[in-house]
From TrEMBL:
Belongs to the short-chain dehydrogenases/reductases (SDR) family. It comes from the Bacteria. Signal peptide: none annotated. Keywords: Oxidoreductase. This is NAD(P)-dependent dehydrogenase, short-chain alcohol dehydrogenase family. It comes from Paenibacillus algorifonticola. InterPro entries: NAD(P)-bd_dom_sf, Sc_DH/Rdtase_CS, SDR_fam. CDD domains: SDR_c. One of its GO terms (molecular function) is oxidoreductase activity.
Length: 270
């Protein structure tokens, strides 16, 4: 019988309402964690997951804290402490994507993405990282994107925010690593629906994108959760400052390389 990797650990997940947040919540609950969940729906979008976690006897605090405010985050964690204790694992899961171009993009839209994806990462790292440093242990995981390194062709602002988080993670790994904290980034690659999410008039990256994964099988948020679980556990104690690309080999594809296509489509280059 396998042991629970996170029994009685407190896991703080941002944007718990998203598909990635729900997958993380489900898997980590199976591993015995307790939770602080930032849910802007107040838990309405995660009712089934909440019901299951509480059936398992887990403590879950649902909050809708403004993560761009260090004072509000500190206040929320202070209120959570008597019930849950300190945070052992922070998973920064904010992933707002809006199409915008450098030529015609709105400044307010750029700032919206910057605040939601990058500023919240800084505030969470600052506030939760201090709590972890005081305890001498912890794990911080940023759910990022392959577009921290490769342009989308549809939203320069999204790529810029993910690139910012990538460097934040490396800086934090140096500083917080001195206090026994690991800081790592997961660069998630294509999953179902990303061809529409990153639709572009400039780039053909997401045309036939499923077949640009060498095995022609897209990943899922469950794959993301499994990797995050490993990074949260003691098994990953020597991983710090890493960008882990979770894309099935998608970014290794060359445009003149033959793709693995279903027989009815033929084996064509592209």
């Amino acid at each position: 019988m396998s042991t629970m990797k996170l029994r009685d650990k407190v896991v703080f997940i941002t944007d718990a309402d998203s598909r990635s947040g729900r997958a993380l919540f489900r898997l980590f609950a199976e591993q015995g964690a307790h939770f602080i969940l930032n849910s802007m729906s107040g838990g309405a979008h995660i009712k089934e997951e909440l019901k299951r976690a509480r059936t398992l006897g887990l403590n879950v605090l649902v909050t809708a804290t403004d993560l761009c405010s260090s004072s509000r985050l500190q206040a929320m964690l202070g209120q959570a402490a008597p019930q849950l204790g300190r945070v052992d694992v922070l998973i920064h899961n904010n992933d707002l994507m809006k199409p915008t171009s450098i030529e015609y993009g709105e400044e307010d839209l750029f700032l919206d993405l910057l605040h939601t994806n990058a500023k919240t990462a800084f505030i969470c790292t600052k506030v939760v990282g201090q709590q972890m440093a005081d305890a001498g242990s912890g794990a911080i995981i940023y759910v990022s994107s392959i577009h921290a390194q490769k342009p989308t062709g549809s939203s320069f602002a999204y790529s810029a925010t993910k690139g910012a988080v990538s460097m934040l993670a490396k800086e934090a790994a140096l500083v917080l690593g001195r206090s026994g904290i690991t800081v790592n980034t997961i660069e998630l690659g294509p999953i179902e629906g990303d061809d529409e999410r990153f639709a572009s008039e400039l780039s053909t990256l997401y045309e036939d994108y499923a077949y640009k994964v060498p095995n022609a099988v897209l990943g899922s948020y469950d794959d993301l959760a499994q990797l995050a679980l490993f990074l949260s556990s003691d098994e990953a104690r020597y991983m710090n400052g890493a960008d882990i690309r979770l894309d099935g080999g998608f970014l290794q594809h060359y445009m003149d390389f033959k793709m693995k296509r279903p027989p009815q489509l033929g084996d064509q280059g592209g």
